[in-house]
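TA notes. Do not distribute before section.
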Amino acid sequence: MIPELPGAVPEIPVSDVEAAVAYYRDKLCFNLDWLEAEISLAGVSRDHCRLFLAGPAFRQARGDAGRVSLWLNLKSKAEVDDLHRAWRSAEAVLLSEPESKPWGLHEFTAADPDGNRFRVFYDFATPEREGAGRAGCGLRAGSAAD
């Protein structure tokens, strides 16, 4: 039986792990789960979203570098708009306003001070497309392995 996959936990490259923790906590409303300043690594979370913030010392020791883009899939257009308003009120770095795109996503883009991007979206076109694709690895679409 193939196991069900958990949610991924992205590693976000940051220039200063303690400053990044403050930004994610104060501007993006994440909780600090743990901080290991001596290795330049922290865990933050909010609701079902969990991230690792990795500073230069941690990343260089493992050969990791570069910025990342995270896509946050919310449950409705209203939730996208609400999160944009909340982050704007907290003075987060917002790169675009919420907008419904021709490709079926209602989205906006935000960033952290290190240039990592958050694409916050609701996929309003998927219900229209359901049934067009099939799950791989012997799984049925929308179900776990038997």
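Switch to the second chain here.
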Amino acid sequence: MTIQIIRTPHPPGSLLAQIGDLLAAEGVPGDEATMARRLALLPREDRILMAVEADRLLGFAHLRITRDLAAEEAAEVVAIVVRPDYRRRGIGRMLIAAAETWARQSGRARLLLRTDVVRTPAHAFYVALGYQEAATSIDFIRDLGLERRADLPTVPPPAGSR
């Protein structure tokens, strides 16, 4: 098995479609057109690492530089996904090692990984690589695309309708 790690801001179409397939297998829908649209909107510093054997994508990691007022700049692994039939074969380790190299080369002293609280196999993987749990948080989201009746202004009935 000869695996190549490719780092790029713009994966070729055939690999981009496979990224969509991997995400769909994890419950994140997205065809090639959706992936291309999302990719075009990413910050220019973002990178995609791809573990490739021949023309088959075995896994990928999405990397970003995070900036905020509360902490120093850090490199972040926004997403990492490995094909289920290739897990526990070193692909994830290769992607994280390449992410660490990218972080150092881009002048960042920290690499941040986030994972859902229920993804305990991922937690064990990160701890085995020497990462420490730094925080536990809960995300709150409100879908602003949905009109909620309670949020609409109250309109009095037209005059004379009583």
